[in-house]
Amino acid sequence: MSNEYISRARALMAQMTLEEKVAQMMQIPYAMVGREEALRWAKLGAGSFLHVLGDDAREIQQAACSTRLGIPVIFGIDAVRGHALNDHATVFPTQLACACSWDRETAREMGRITAREVATDGLHWTFSPLLCLSRDPRWGRVNETFGEDPYLTGELAAAIIEGYQGDSLDDPESIIACAKHYFAYGEAVGARDACDSEITYRKAREVFLPPFKKAVDAGCASFMTAYGSIDGTPLTIDRKALHDILRGEMGFDGFVVTDWMNATSLVTQQFVAADPVEAARLAAEAGNDMIMSSPEFYESALRSIREGRLSESVIDEAVLHILTVKMRMELFAHPEKLGRPGCIGCAEHHEAALRAAQKSITLLRNDGVLPIADGVKTIAVIGGNADDIRAQYGDWTYFSHPLPNPEHEPIRPYTTIREGMEALAAARGIACVYSRGCSPIPTDADDLDAAVEAAKGADLIVYVVGDEVPQVGEGKDRADLALSGRQSELFARLRALGIPMTTVLCASKPLAMPEVEAASNAVVVAFNGGAHGGEAVAQALFGEINPQGRLPISFPHHSGQVPVYYNALPGWHKQVDKQKYCDLPETPLFAFGEGMGYAPFAYSDLSFDTDTLTARVTVKNTGSVEGVETVQVYFRDLVSSVMTPVKQLIAYKQVELAPGKAKTVEITLDRMDFSLVNRREERVVEPGEFLLMVGHSSRNEDLLTVKFALA
Ligand code: BGC
What we know:
Layout: H1 3-14, H2 18-24, E1 26-29, H3 30-33, H4 35-44, E2 48-50, H5 54-65, E3 74-77, H6 95-100, H7 104-120, E4 125-126, H8 150-165, E5 178-182, E6 196-197, H9 201-208, H10 210-217, E7 222-225, E8 229-230, E9 233-234, H11 239-249, E10 255-257, H12 262-268, H13 276-286, E11 291-292, H14 297-306, H15 312-328, H16 347-360, E12 362-366, E13 378-382, H17 389-393, H18 417-427, E14 431-435, H19 448-455, E15 460-466, H20 487-495, E16 501-506, H21 514-519, E17 522-525, H22 533-541, E18 601-609, E19 614-621, E20 627-637, E21 648-657, E22 662-668, E23 676-677, E24 683-684, E25 688-695, E26 703-710
Parallel strand pairs: 1-2, 1-11, 2-3, 3-4, 5-7, 6-8, 7-10, 13-14, 13-15, 15-16, 16-17
Antiparallel strand pairs: 8-9, 12-17, 18-19, 19-22, 20-21, 20-25, 23-24, 25-26
Helix pairs in contact: 1-15, 2-15, 4-5, 7-8, 7-16, 8-10, 12-13, 13-14, 16-22, 18-22
The protein binds beta-D-glucopyranose.
């Protein structure tokens, strides 16, 4: 970053009173405080507001720019899957669905378009991407993550950040990205949102910090602190995390914002501060620059300084971080972002949302029932989630935030699965009947008999299962991952008809559905596909697109089996590849990296050149349609000073192959890809023997292996 911005920020700060400086650290929640109070804060010099749109935002900005120093505010919003809190914006797939694409370009495009729409609304900053790992699918926020793997998460994070921020922060179509929640928030014990993560710093460095490092390297201008704690220390007061590692080791040069009321919760939830004055000191000293939604911080920090408990230099450091980013944005010249007038929800953006949904469709089982064959005359589409745009969206849209608004009328264009199926069936002269049957959350309208009746006589049943918004998000962790309500019962009754059946998962997360895996002729995972998720599912089922998604997360057989993430440490008291539980397999229902299309791929001739660290493998499309294969590279350190995972993803490459064509795929690795974090918390490569595994998924049977040594 150029020193010029820092000098300009310093010069401005030199003119600020202590009160103005502390106000600059404040981020005010518009929806909670209301207009009058928001304007009062703007006049005090608050640095930022969140969740405010349109004219309300403009009024606040005018108030801020009319203050003594006229420092513009930055407006933050949770535009986490498109600018979806604006009801006319383009709703993209969730991060989890996007991660099924394993496609950096899809993530980048999603970021770019979101930025353009947010900027066109005059806003500057999205609280995205979320880089916590979903190793326990019971957690309520799995949908917001890129899945369970640090490497894949880091790759997609860097891409989406590049999309949000563009070439420079002062670009009229760029917004600030925010890497959150720093860190290991998804690892809370029992998947209980915001509880303690029982991990060590060695483990943090091995698993949870690498995606955040990639965010820093991608130039991410802001970070958000996590709600939770690591081994009993709330992240909000963890100077080792926020200062020593983030700034000192990773080289972060943006600003850090707390999560919602993190300063308040030090007193009210985590009990590490006796009062708000103490909490303000602890939060500021740890390295939080901006304080989200803890209004008492203002008076408390001032009091703490006046009483000599908190040094003003701590405040100066925070304000310098914030102002430097404001300088980089050229906010003083352009307090309001311009974006591209007319672009919100435009056709071009909707096409990109469809592309993203298409790439996210993950086909997991198929006995040949898909793509839908010519002989099919009638299709029965069953399930509430087949025709419920709220469930298809999931959370963080105008239906759910900033306050739940389930009565809001959905805004077109969008396509549900039912609509997508009906349109493509009609174009082929196929009859398509729909019956709701039941939804994930039981209602009086559930009618299983009607659904079974509707399905009789069909040549194919497409049964859509999943979850709904009240089962997703903060404070909505699930103890039970089985299909909720009467979905399983309806599955059994439909199955009993003996009609070929494709089951589609429209959900926020992996669900434990062994019955579906065992008895469906095909299983498709769509997660929350956004505005065009329904169209993408129908296109995949009819073979208009060849599904190319790969799971970014493992599915358990049963809730009691979690975690089942693939990159576990080797266990003891079991034989390799034999089951650990006496009543369930240890292996997942669906594995990380798994997914198939309509063309199978064959792997051969794996080699690894230890001089150039280049892996070579031949991949052949042995099917009859063109397809995209994601070549996955894993490794294992065979003997090491600390135990290391049975396999870890270190690279992947996507290749498009015509039917019958083969290609030698080359992937060059870096020596540090084979590193571990030792007991002294150092990332090192320990000389010795390693196993390289290359293939179609994380399952052993899908991988070719080669042993090699590194000196
Ligand atoms: C969430 C954050 C979000 C913030 C602002 C918090 O409750 O944890 O992810 O960005 O609210 O809406």
